Every structure is written in C-alpha cells, then in structure tokens.
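LAB NOTEBOOK - FOLDING QUEUE
OPERATOR: T.R.
BATCH SIZE: 2
PURPOSE: Compare the predicted structure-token outputs for two unrelated chains run back to back under identical settings.
PRIORITY: normal
REVIEWER: second-year student, initials M.K.

ITEM 1
FIELD SEQUENCE / FIELD STRUCTURE:
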Amino acid sequence: MKNEIKELDYFTFKYNQDYLTNPFPYHWFDGKLIARKTTSGEIFLEDTYWDYGDNKTFTIEEALEKGVLTFVCNLNDVKEISEYDIVYYADVDIINLSHQHGHYIKYAIRNNVTRSKEKMTTVIIDRIRTAEQKIESCKRNIENWNSKLKEIDNGVDLNKIYI
C-alpha cells in the first residue's frame, strides 16, 4: 500500500485495539488523514483536526502499524460544494470532508458527478410534506385562537383562558 499512496490522498483512520491505551485517542484528532509531501519528497499522513499545521502526523508505516487506513478519495479528483448543495447529489456521491469532529462542515463530490434526479425528487417531496404539515398545524392554531376569541366574547372567566 505504501507505494500506492499519492500526495493529497484522503483516508479515514481507526486505531487498532492494541494502540488504544489513551482513554481519549480521538481528542484533538479527527482520524481523517491527508497524504502530504515533505520537501525531500517523502509522503506522510496528516490529520485534519487543525487548520494551521498543529496536527498529528504519521509516516505511512506508523499509520499501518497503529491502525486501519481506508482510502476515500484524492483531493485533486473532487470539488468542494456547499452544505446547501448536498440536496442535488446522491448520498453515495457526497464526500464528508468536515473537520474538528464536524464543527467545520465541508463537503465535496467527485469531479465527474452530476446532479441526481432521484435525490432532488426525494428532497422536493419531503419539503412538500413538511410544508403541508405546517399548513395543517397553522389551520389548527387559527381554529384554536378563534375558539378562544368566542369564549372571551361570550364572557367566560378570563382566568380560564390560556393564550
């Protein structure tokens, strides 16, 4: 695997049970590693938790010894999309590149992916159902408020009216 890893390859990483001696192994560590090159051309793996270079790093050998690497994509083969754009693409085509355990949201799709008719249809149908539920809820609220107005007009004890 070592010779197959290229710069900007993106992996998920899970520690092996043998290396879980730290009670919080994923504290300040995302377990999402990007292959980077040193000035001498050697590849190392850098975690994505911090944006400013204070990340945990591994040699490829260390990563393979301490845990399991799962290839996700090469960052040259994807384009970033906004969180709002995920409604246009099939779930299998969306790559979650978020870091700091999801506090910083970032998504991408492979460069050749096109919008999904099925996903867009599902999202629109879901939004229609949600809007219909809101309409029904508003209708019930209007009926309730009208009923309370009638009770007030009919002289009911105001201490028994809750708004």
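ITEM 2
FIELD SEQUENCE / FIELD STRUCTURE:
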Amino acid sequence: MKAMPTLLHHHSHATLMRRRRLSRTWAGMVLGWSLIRTLIVWAAVGDYGLNPWIYLAIDLCSAIVDAITTPLMVICFVDDRYRKAVQWGLIALVAFLVPDLYIFLGTRTLPMKLIVIICAIIALTLMIGVIGVVRKIRRAKALRLSAACLRPSD
C-alpha cells in the first residue's frame, strides 16, 4: 500500500509577512468595529435593559476570537486545507453570533419591529462577511496560482 503524499506549503518570507500584516489589519478593523457596534447597539436597545458594559465585554472577547480565527480560516482555504478551514470558520461564526445573542438574552422584551431589524442586520452583516471572505480567498488563490506559473520549473 502506497502512502498518499501530503501537500506541504512552503511560503516565501514575503508571503508570510504579507499574511501577518493582513491578519493584524483585520484584527484592528474587527476591534474597532466592536467599539462602534457597541455604541450603535446601546443607542438602539439600551432602553430595553441592555447593559452596554457587558455587551462591550462580550463583543470584545468575540472580536478577539474573530480576529484570530477568520485569517486562519482564509489562510487554510488558500492553502487547500479545507477541513481545518471549516473548523476555524465554525469558531469564527460562533464568535460572530455570540454578541448578537446577548442582545436578545440581555434585554427585556423587544418589539417585533426591532427584532426584525436586528435579525436583518445580523443576516446582512453575515452575508457581507461571507462575500468578503470568499473574495479574499479567490484573490489569494489566483495570486498563488500566478506566482506558481511564474516560477521556473525545477
């Protein structure tokens, strides 16, 4: 029985540094959005009993998890490590949803109109996030493929 060869991805120093820079940029954006989102949520549902400090703590913890897991998921997809990418993606999805769940659990009864608006915003931001991640993966795979085509053959 012959063992299946494993694909090892050896990346250049420049590629690794670019990935690190992009991951740090993503982390900064996620943490910044967390602060902005807390102000928006507090203004929208603060009158319904939401504690903005608890929400901020939950959102910051979730943002830290998202800041780590989303770049790892993208990198795994780019490197064709799909099982690991799905694992990181599931963790990122949970991190994305936890602060929104607190909105429903941490408030008194919300009017149906507000529930619909919050759910629509959650769905819209999730869709935008998925589209953005898919675009990043496609762009990175195309870049990797074009770089592989330009390399002289061994």
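REVIEWER COMMENT (ITEM 2): Residues 1-8 have pLDDT under 50 and may be disordered.
FOLLOW-UP: none requested
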